[in-house]
Structures are given as structure tokens and as C-alpha cells.
Amino acid sequence: MKDFAELITSIDQSNKTNDKVAALKSYFSEANDADKIWVLALFTNRRPKRKINSTLLKDWVTQWAAIPSWLFQESYHVVGDLAETIALILPFDETKATIDKPLHHYIHQLIEIGELSNEEKEIQLKEIYGELNTQERFVFTKLMTGSWRLGVSQNIVTRAISQAYNIDKTIIAHRLMGNWTPQSTSFSELILEERKDDLIARPYPFFLAHPVTYEEVKELGHPKDWQAEWKWDGIRGQIIKRKNEVFIWSRGEELVTEKFPELVEMSANIPNGTVLDGEILPYQNGEPLPFALLQTRIGRKNLSKAILKNAPVVFKAYDILEYQSQDIRSNSLQNRNLLLEEIIRGVNHPNLQLSAAEKFNNWEELAETRTKARSLKTEGFMLKKLGSAYEVGRKRGGWWKWKIDPLTIDGVLIYAQKGHGRRADLYSDYTFGVWRDNELIPFAKAYSGLTDAEMRKVNAFVKNNTKERFGPVRTVTPQLVFEIAFEGIQESKRHKSGIALRFPRISRWREDKKMEAANTLGDLQELLEKYG
């Protein structure tokens, strides 16, 4: 556990990717296999389910520390992170904290604790915390509560293992995907053992695109070398058909087959040894539906007939990665397109559609077509070089995403809350309001988009202009205006404004604008009517 705690500290202390790769490489080179497989699980979203209620945990820690509950709450508000608060506030016994049990021992304990009564959980947790030093307590609580914000992507983990064992990064990326668990797979079986055939359900790593501006688009070369297709707002996925079995994977590496029975039914006509890449899209009467409809499927264990009817989907295929059981990712996009069209013609099913390319003679003409994107309920264009291979991860050169500019609205800061981690001492999480008559109605929350200097200025303003306090939240004197950018807008019964925004963030601080000039709820409703 001490080595893992030191790993987390090393990662947390640097923003540099190479430093994080180096720390992980060192850990994977030296740790025992039982711990390594769990570290892989933790960093690839295969963490054990949360077993402890946070409210109970706070109550227990307060009792163990022999302090009043108000002092714990005040400490929590100041620190801004539950795991760090617990690590600092509990009494420390140096004689017990010299124990060094492995990481997998504590994870197995956490899994077993979930089956105990609350009284038994409290006894075991108190004993565990007594064995850990401050750093280990912090990490253990993070394991238990699942609140990780370490900036470690799967790509970083892949690079680290690749360097530690001198195995090609693409092979590691491939092996990390799929439906494995630490309970059923060892580190050696997953990473080190050579195998002739991967599991039939295993998807390919996704090829991702970098954003591009119009000025950069004009420098891409001759348009005849490029393909432009609409960028759909759905769930990126792969449909796999091998040995008469169908598997549907999301880009987040979740097996979502059971969520889309109509796509499984359609896939009965796909030849074995085929893997398609595309977008699972809510779709009806020839046009996309709001993205939120997909969430009604993903969030349900059982899909009713009503959900299937109200959230119909199609698969917009835009690439083929495997054909006749052969990996064809190294073929040119132009050649892959021919095979993809052949597959779609053969399947001949309304739930499988080709993400067709748009015709254009020059970049100016394509830019004009792009102005129709929002009315067509797309996010802009994907630009793909016709001679490009299907690569792994986010690579420059072959694919680019040319997204439309976000929608914006000017809102007034009305609530603020301290952040977490490095922002624990700053009011960095904000709620914004728009005018309805003479009242400011909250419509969005955002915590990204400001520079560090701007955030410190807002933090000082919040402290000097607090009207009321509700736990960690402060109501502030309305004065500061910010431009809020967002990707989509939809009706919502859960929000006071009746509207929910997709991916809201601060695009700029409108120091030039008085709060009276901020937008109104009516302005938001007009955007909803036009783009919702």
C-alpha cells in the first residue's frame, strides 16, 4: 500500500505527462502482479463498486477523532476534499502505521466489507485506518469513495506499460480493452502472455481527432485528398460480429450490447469477422433526435417498450476496422470506404446507415456548407485524409474535427463554492443566473474557463461580497457577468429555468458588461426553440 500511495503522490504532484508515465513505469516494473492488475483496473474505470455511505463515514470519523460534528464540517469546507480531511483529522499511531500490507489486500477488504452490517463495517474500517499513515489514509479513502481526479488517461497507462515491458503500445492498448476484471484475470494473462486469438468480444482502440480551425483547414492541402462528413452527436461505438456473436462497445470501453437490441437484431445480417466504427445516434424520420434520449437507455437496467419507442436509434457507420476476420486498419480510408459500402448494401437494414461524405470543390464551399450544421443537428465536420490509416488514440494529420462554434449566453454569478484538490482553497465552482423580470434564475454551473489570475480575482470578490452561506455554498452579491459557452440545449423539468445546457463552461469574463445587460430567460427559450 505504501508503494501505491507514493505512486499517487508522484502523479498528483506533476502536470507533466512524461512525469506521470515515468512514475507508472517504475511502479509496473517493481510491484507484485496482484497489485498491478488492480492498478490497471483503477486507471481504466474498472474500480470496485462503492460500498460505504459517505454520511456514515463522516459520522464514524468524527467519533473516532473525538471531535464535534461542526468541527469536522468546518474542516471539510476548508480542506475541500473528504479523503484529505479524514487523513488529516484522524489520530495517528506510529507503531501501527509501520504495517505495509499490499494494495490488493485492502481492495479485497473493501469488497468484503460491502456485505457486512454497518456496525461490522465501522469496526473493520477503524482497524484499517489505524494501520495506515496519513498518505495511505488519503489514498484508501479515495479507493473507498471512488473520487479520483488524477489526470491519468488510459493512454498514459498504456505508454507506461509499453515502456516497462518493451511491448508495442498498440498491442497493449488492444489488450487493455475488453470485458476483463481483476478477479478473473491476472496481470500476466492480460498483458504479458502471447496469444494467438484475442477474445472474440475484444474491440479495437479508437482513432480520435484533433480540433482544427478554418485557418488551419485552408492549410490542409488540396480538397480532393480529403473526405468531409458530418460529426454526429451520439455515442461513439464499435459493432463487432465474430463467430455469430454480436458485441457493441462504447468509446468509454463499456459493453452496451443489451442497451440496443435493435442494433443486435440488425447485426444478424452482418458477416462474421466484421468490426464497424460509427455513432449510435437517436434518430427518427430522417433526422437526429436530442442526445438526452440516449441517456434514458444507458441509465436503465431494463428497457421497456416505451423507452425503445421514444428513443429509437441507428448506427451511422463511418469506418470498417475488420473485414473477413482480417485487421484492415492499415488500409487507406478510400479502400476501407469501398468495403464499408459493400457491407452496408449487403445488410440492407434501416438501423445501419452510411455516414456519407459531403461533396465540395474547395474549402470555402465546405465552410459555407458547415453553416448548416446546427440546423441539421450535427456538431460540424470530420475531415479525413483519403489515404489515411485507422490509427490508435489522438493523432495529428489523418483526422481532424472541425466543430461549429458553441452557443453562448451572458449570465450573472449568483452562487460560488470551493473546488477540490488544488482548488480546495479557492471559490472556483460557480452558478450563473439569467433575468426573468427582476429576478435572476439559475441556469448553469461551470468551473472551467478562467485563468488562475482571474480565478483569484473572483475568489476575492466572493469573500468580500458574500450575502448568505448554505454549508459550502455562498450566495454572492450579483455583479459579475460571464459569457457561458455550451454545445447543446434542451428542456429540463429538473432545473428551475426549465432548461439544461450541455457542456457549459466559461468562455470569458465580461468585465465590460453590467449585470443589467446580461441575457434573459426568454433569450434561452429562443435558443431552445431554435436548436433544442
TrEMBL record:
List this protein's GO terms for biological process: cell division; DNA recombination; DNA repair; DNA replication
Q: Which domain of life is it from?
A: Bacteria
Q: Which SUPFAM superfamilies match?
A: ATP-dependent DNA ligase DNA-binding domain (SSF117018), DNA ligase/mRNA capping enzyme, catalytic domain (SSF56091), Nucleic acid-binding proteins (SSF50249)
Keywords linked to the UniProt accession? ATP-binding, Cell cycle, Cell division, DNA damage, DNA recombination, DNA repair, DNA replication, Ligase, Magnesium, Metal-binding, Nucleotide-binding
Q: Where is the ATP-dependent DNA ligase family profile domain?
A: 306-436
**One Pfam match, by short name?**
DNA_ligase_A_M
Task: Give the E.C. number(s).
Answer: 6.5.1.1
Please give the Gene Ontology molecular function terms for this protein.
Answer: ATP binding; DNA binding; DNA ligase (ATP) activity; metal ion binding
UniProt cross-references to PROSITE patterns, sorted A to Z: DNA_LIGASE_A1, DNA_LIGASE_A3
> Which CDD domains does the record match to this protein?
Adenylation_DNA_ligase_Bac1, OBF_DNA_ligase_Arch_LigB
Q: Could you tell me which InterPro entries the record lists for this protein?
A: ATP-dep_DNA_ligase, ATP_dep_DNA_lig_pp_1105_fam, DNA_ligase_ATP-dep_C, DNA_ligase_ATP-dep_cent, DNA_ligase_ATP-dep_CS, DNA_ligase_ATP-dep_N, DNA_ligase_N_sf, NA-bd_OB-fold
Q: Which reaction does it catalyse?
A: ATP + (deoxyribonucleotide)n-3'-hydroxyl + 5'-phospho-(deoxyribonucleotide)m = (deoxyribonucleotide)n+m + AMP + diphosphate
From the Swiss-Prot or TrEMBL record, give the protein name.
DNA ligase (ATP)
Organism name: Marivirga aurantiaca
Q: Taxonomically, what lineage is the organism?
A: Bacteria, Pseudomonadati, Bacteroidota, Cytophagia, Cytophagales
